[in-house]
Amino acid sequence: MALSRRMVAPVLFVVLLLVATEAVTARVVSEERHCLSQSHTFKGMCFSSENCASVCKSEKFPGGECKMHGATRKCFCTVVC
Fold it and tell me: 1 vs 7, 9, 12, CA distance in Å?
């Protein structure tokens, strides 16, 4: 019984350390900023974000999405900046 009481504090410390590390990691991942760059090869008005994403992937971007630009929808490629 005395051994288990001595182990409570170190075990609790390790658990709290792991929880704090996970919280910091989750916050850093959620704070990633995504920059947009208009596609150079997409032609016409952008109606499908899936089509836009495939064109952006051919331009070496990880993805893309249709966004309003003025009165028209254009294809913008996304990248983590």
Answer: 10, 14, 17
